Amino acid sequence: MTVEAAAPGAGERGRVARHGPEVVKTHRADTDPAALRVRVQVARWPGLGGVLLPPLAEPAVREGRLVTRWPYGEPVDQAVPERYPWAAAGALLARLHAAPLAELPGPLPAAGGRQRLARAVRRLRGLPPEPRLGAARRLVLRAHRRPLPPPGRQPALCHGDFHLGQLVRAAGPPAGWRLIDIDDLGVGDPAWDLARPAAWYAAGLLPPEDWQQLLAGYRLVEPDAAGAAGDPWPWLEGPARALTVQSAAQEVARAQLEARQLSEAGVALVDACGRIAGLP
């Protein structure tokens, strides 16, 4: 599984720039100022120390866009897959999900998982039909027509856009891995935070040992979660289908915009969409 960049894109999307020991993030043009302020307050809440990277300042406005400042953290080294911190990531997610909602700054917005799915599909639909990618596009959109599942657990504080590109190693104190990118932080179904690696595992793109490390790290903190007594898929299957569609829609859109064939990962995700579309 390739580590995804934590801040892709330009224009209406977010941008990140490093300035020595600091990182400055320019947020999406449609970012809600009130929701971002609450998310920043949650990121610096003492009870989540060691889980979320705390900001250096309150959000500001520059040239009409919301901007936040963060300490620099060392990202996951994409060149060394055998050292990807899957167990640490699972433990961080479990600690995030265990945060007491009633004690957090608020009002908390909804986590952004479902909105991200909708944006990815809307972006794909907005592109003109491309004959080379027509079959892939049809499979993704057919899979998207399957209804989304209801929440499988009590609402929790969720990251909303988890992947390994959302981890950095902070200098501390204390030193260690932290979750970054709070743009989709909020209340939601915690299964959606595990759904992207689950989708990649189901599509054959994430090695089984990496998937098991993620689950093991999660269960160290939440022993009764993620199917600890057996199979995690009754909890994860629906969100994993949704993230399969989202990831496939992004891959097809990128291939079309870059005038290239689908990547190997894109082919696997589109094939998975075909299996989803064929379910009874």
From TrEMBL:
SUPFAM superfamilies: Protein kinase-like (PK-like). Residues 12-28 have a biased composition (Basic and acidic residues). Residues 1-28 are annotated as: Disordered. InterPro entries: Aminoglycoside_PTrfase (IPR002575), Kinase-like_dom_sf (IPR011009). Residues 80-201 form the Aminoglycoside phosphotransferase domain. This is Phosphotransferase. It comes from Streptomyces chisholmiae. It comes from the Bacteria. Pfam families: APH. Residues 1-10 have a biased composition (Low complexity).
